[in-house]
TrEMBL record, chain A:
The keyword ATP-binding applies. It comes from the Bacteria. Residues 4-231 form the ABC transporter domain. This is ABC transporter ATP-binding protein. GO terms for molecular function: ATP binding; ATP hydrolysis activity. Keywords: ATP-binding, Nucleotide-binding, Transport. Coiled coil: none annotated. Signal peptide: none annotated. The keyword Ribosomal protein does not apply. PANTHER family: ABC TRANSPORTER ATP-BINDING PROTEIN ALBC-RELATED.
TrEMBL record, chain B:
It comes from the Bacteria. This is ABC transporter permease. Coiled coil: none annotated. The chain crosses the membrane at residues 12-34, 54-84, 105-127, 147-168, 180-199, 205-226. Keywords: Membrane, Transmembrane, Transmembrane helix.
Length: 241, 232
């Protein structure tokens, strides 16, 4: 079983506290929905887990492995992530991007990329430039990349952005399959999409997180389910700030 | 070493174009200055009858052009990986950030250096051989030692300009800033290179080696910065 724990994580920027996470624990076999208003700290928290942002204090642990500069490379072997698309990859061909990924993750390169691309319903030639793909196709390509090395933790920041309904359904299906033995953490502003796939939820507002709550409990405790859970926590943190 | 081989193999597609560009530019510049020296009888062009001056000016011209072309290539394959949100893609690879940065720098430098050294040497050699057959200069062509010194000095200076421009682009977070830096550095270095190459090739080589040492020191500092960098 994989467990990721976050304890007393803090991060300030220009004198402003942007993260104050007391305790958070996520286990494999669950899909965690991280919800919050714009600027709440969702992406910042995910970037801290991926080592892209160095917190001022606190600890992030993957099973027994504590994340710091020395263990960062080892930590990253267990993480697959999709953040906002960067334009540095637009001039690359799909083959080049996949080859680089497979090399640095020490994976054996397959004879062709057909099966990998088919897993995310992409019928494209590997010689195509990534910039020539639509936003949704690029999103699916990055998802294929993120899961290619069988990570224990899958981090998806707004995975449904730019996807057509078929793409959204395919992504949900993939996430459900992957969650069986992974920790999956996703962010989204669409409660409808989240309600379909998450099993647990965390709300973040002003850098502070609610506790992890099972979706079933949220639905029974709140009339409007996840939306009410979100609104109540945001109201609570607004009153404190 | 495994990562270095991988990065070199990725860059090998640029070797051909860099090599050919170097050869063509060097030959063009050599013949240009040789022809000016031969047919322009004004006092100012007297120096263009000396083979070492022609070689110095040609190498400087090639160096300037290649520094800018090399920076364009570096922006695509090096600087682009370390600016803005593009950094995420690079920093999410499960390899030490500093080590990856140094590997990319080493691979880039090796490919550019080998393309330039081969290109400059072949162009200078071809020019010297053709000089024996169809003499343009009034002097004998430069000896092999002078030739090799100018090849290595020109290569080191070009790489120094390209890498310094790349570092400026990474530090200031913009590929365009790399290009502007390369133009400014070319203007600064080219005068120094031309004057020292005409005076003494060995002084030029020392200047080139010192430039490379400075670049290496700056590169090491950049690596440390990248290790502690954040993608906000």
């Amino acid at each position: 079983m994989t467990r990721i724990t976050i304890e007393h994580l803090t991060k300030s920027l220009s004198g402003r506290n942007i993260l104050q996470v007391k305790n958070l624990s996520c286990e494999s076999g669950e899909v965690y929905g991280l919800v919050g208003p714009n600027g709440a700290g969702k992406t910042t928290l995910l970037k801290c887990i991926c080592g892209l942002i160095i917190p001022d204090g606190g600890e992030i642990q993957l099973n027994e492995l504590v994340l710091d500069r020395r263990t960062r490379s080892t930590f990253l072997k267990h993480i697959g992530s999709v953040f906002a698309q960067s334009d540095s990859i637009f001039d690359l061909t799909i083959d080049t991007l996949l080859t680089e990924h497979y090399h640095y993750f020490c994976l054996k390169r397959p004879k062709d990329w057909h099966e990998l691309l088919q897993n995310v319903a992409l019928e494209i030639t590997p010689k195509q430039k990534i910039g020539s793909l639509s936003l949704g196709m690029r999103q699916r390509l990055l998802l294929a990349l993120a899961i290619s090395h069988d990570p224990s933790i899958l981090i998806l920041d707004e995975p449904f952005n730019g996807l057509d309904p078929d793409g959204v359904n395919l992504t949900k299906k993939l996430i459900n399959n992957l969650a069986k033995d992974k920790v999956v953490i996703i962010t989204s502003h669409s409660f409808a999409d989240l309600n379909d796939i998450i099993t647990q939820s965390v709300v973040i507002a002003h850098g502070q997180t609610s506790g992890v709550k099972k979706l079933a409990a949220i639905k029974s405790d709140f009339t409007d389910g996840l939306a009410d859970f979100y609104r109540e926590f945001v109201r609570h943190t607004n009153s404190l700030n | 070493m495994r990562n270095l081989h991988f990065e070199i193999s990725r860059l090998s597609k640029f070797f051909g174009s860099l090599n050919l560009t170097t050869m063509v530019l060097q030959l063009l510049f050599l013949y240009f200055f040789a022809l000016v020296g031969r047919f322009d009888r004004s006092d100012d062009s007297n120096i263009l009858t000396h083979s070492n001056v022609i070689l110095a000016l040609a190498t400087t011209g090639t160096m300037c052009a290649l520094a800018i072309y090399g920076t364009v290539v570096a922006c695509q394959i090096l600087v682009g990986n370390y600016v803005g949100t593009n950094k995420s893609q690079t920093y999410l690879l499960p390899v030490g950030r500093k080590s990856l940065f140094y590997t990319k720098l080493a691979a880039f430098s090796l490919v550019v250096a080998s393309a330039m050294i081969v290109g400059l040497f072949i162009a200078d050699l071809v020019f010297n051989i053709l000089e024996f057959l169809f003499q343009l200069m009034t002097e004998q062509p430069t000896g092999i030692l002078d030739l090799l010194t100018s090849v290595f000095a020109g290569t080191f200076l070009t790489i120094a300009i390209i890498l310094l421009s790349s570092f400026i682009g990474i530090k200031l977070n913009g590929k365009v800033k790399s290009m502007i830096a390369s133009i400014v550095l070319v203007i600064l270095f080219s005068n120094l290179a031309a004057i020292t190459m005409m005076a003494s090739k060995f002084i030029t080589l020392i200047v080139a080696v010192v430039s490379m040492v400075i670049v290496i020191l700056v590169g090491l500092t950049m690596g440390n910065g990248i290790e502690n960098d954040e993608v906000l």
